Every structure is written in structure tokens, then in C-alpha cells.
Amino acid sequence: VQLQASGGGLVQAGGSLRLSCAASGSIFTFDVMGWYRQAPGKQRELVASITRGGSTNIPDSMKGRFTISRDNAKNTMYLQINSLKPEDTAVYYCNAVSVGVRPYWGQGTLVTVSS
């Protein structure tokens, strides 16, 4: 299975973006899918995750502006980001995991937020 992240770009602070992660196969096979980000010089961090059943997990530091969703029929996961801040500038990666299988990673999509 391959994951293709898209939707990044240059946006002004306060703006919004919706990132997409399209899978080459059925995403219903994955136990959990998630979005991570990595800013320059920083470690990769979890932004949000969603289970096959639709339960979401968003770290406290991300709550309020990030919304994760998935469309099993379209084999696509989304990340809606509102009220973007310059500190949200990072490469955003999508991830998919299943028990007993190595994690899958997309190639990343760059989000740049100007002040």
C-alpha cells in the first residue's frame, strides 16, 4: 500500500488548509491512521490519529485547530487545519498502522505559514 499526502502550500497566518492522504488500497485494513509533522530542526510529532472505527486522538497541544477524518469509501484521510500559525510550518506526513505490520508512511506535504 502506498500513501500519497497532498494539500500543503503557502498560507498566511489565520488561514486554513485541508490536507489529504490517499491510499492506493483500502484504508479499512488499517487499525489506525494518523498525521505527523516535522518542523526544521525538530523531532517528528503526532498531530492527530483516527481508528478504523472513527475514534480520534488529538494531543492537548493540537486540540482546537486540528480535525482529522477519514472516508473509507474514498480510501482517503484528511486533516483540517484552521487558524494557522507560523509555528505550524512543517512537513506533514500521513501514517497508517496495523497490528503485526510495519507502519506505512506517505512522502509528506509541506505547509508554510507566513506571518
Number of alpha- plus pi-helical segments: 0
Describe the largest sheet.
Answer: 7 strands, mixed
* Count of extended strands: 11
Taken as a percent bin, the fraction of beta residues is: over 45%
Structural class: mainly beta
Please give a structural write-up:
With 115 residues, the protein is mostly beta strands. Helix content is 0%, strand content 55%. The chain is built from no helices and 11 strands. The strands form 2 sheets. Strands 2, 4, 5, 6, 9, 10 and 11 form a 7-stranded mixed β-sheet that branches. It has a 4-stranded antiparallel β-sheet with strand order 1-3-8-7, with no helix packed on it. β4 and β5 form a beta hairpin. The chain is globular, with a radius of gyration of 13 Å. It starts with a strand and ends with a strand. 30% of the residues are buried.
Any chance you could write out the topology, listing elements then pairs?
Blueprint: E1 3-6, E2 9-12, E3 17-23, E4 32-38, E5 45-51, E6 56-57, E7 66-71, E8 76-81, E9 90-98, E10 101-105, E11 109-114
Parallel strand pairs: 2-11
Antiparallel strand pairs: 1-3, 3-8, 4-5, 4-9, 5-6, 7-8, 9-10, 9-11
Can you describe this structure in just a few lines?
The chain has 115 residues and is an all-beta fold.
From the structure above, extract its key features.
globular; mainly beta; single chain; 11 strands; four-stranded antiparallel beta sheet; 115 residues; seven-stranded mixed beta sheet
